[in-house]
Amino acid sequence: xxxxxxxxxxxxxxxxxxxxxxxxxxxxxxxxxxxxxxxxxxxxxxxxxxxxxxxxxxxxxxxxxxxxxxxxxxxxxxxxxxxxxxxxxxxxxxxxxxxxxxxxxxxxxxxxxxxxxxxxxxxxxxxxxxxxxxxxxxxxxxxxxxxxxxxxxxxxxxxxxxxxxxxxxxxxxxxxxxxxxxxxxxxxxxxxxxxxxxxxxxxxxxxxxxxxxxxxxxxxxxxxxxxxxxxxxxxxxxxxxxxxxxxxxxxxxxxxxxxxxxxxxxxxxxxxxxxxxxxxxxxxxxxxxxx
Length: 291
Prior knowledge:
Blueprint: E1 7-14, E2 18-27, E3 32-37, H1 46-57, E4 60-70, E5 79-80, H2 82-99, H3 106-111, E6 117-118, H4 126-176, H5 179-195, H6 202-216, H7 219-236, H8 243-264, H9 267-287
Parallel strand pairs: 3-4
Antiparallel strand pairs: 1-2, 2-4, 5-6
Helix pairs in contact: 1-4, 4-7, 4-9, 7-8, 8-9
Cofactor: a divalent metal cation
Domain Endoribonuclease YicC-like N-terminal: 2-155
Protein name: YicC family protein
């Protein structure tokens, strides 16, 4: 089945001490473009997340964000160097007295001095890393399901449009029966008016008619277009999702439709070809979002 490149998934996992939440969002792209937003404490896990995401997501412009909630909110709290703070504060007081400054917020200034407040930048241990990956895989499962559901909607739409092109092709075959006799009659009438019926070499005329009609024959185009449409539908129902392959098939369909229109030499057929082209353009637009 085909999948959409548009996707969304969120997953959470916890172990009683910490809870990780991973959120994935994706839009269509020719390649895989990963953007990760991680807390600093899990920055060392970025390569692992990128590697796993590359295997499981395949293509798309993907944003991955990770958030952490600790049961004990003080577990990863920043620490204050009290001795250093007092030393800075005392020095600031002395300087304030020397310059006659009494309104300065010395307390806030001392807290902002270098190395007074230091964040706990320890990396996560293996147990906590498993919680992170559990949340990631849960998010991936939801993300993949979203893509499959969206892909099913795309599949039904694409199938209906391809079947519509096939129905137009049947209309071409219905109209085409009168095309060659009309062309023959038109040429014969034109020749009679130009040189006179008695001056026409009928043998030569028949030879030229056969050559001309052969150039206008669209049998091969009809056969190939029907074959491409059937192959496209097979691709939609294949077990793997391959938007690029479907894109190539649609290009071949376009070539046959264009040739059919250029060789038609018939207003009715050309009108039907225009409707084929409209449906094909809609198919190509939809394929931009197929994985």
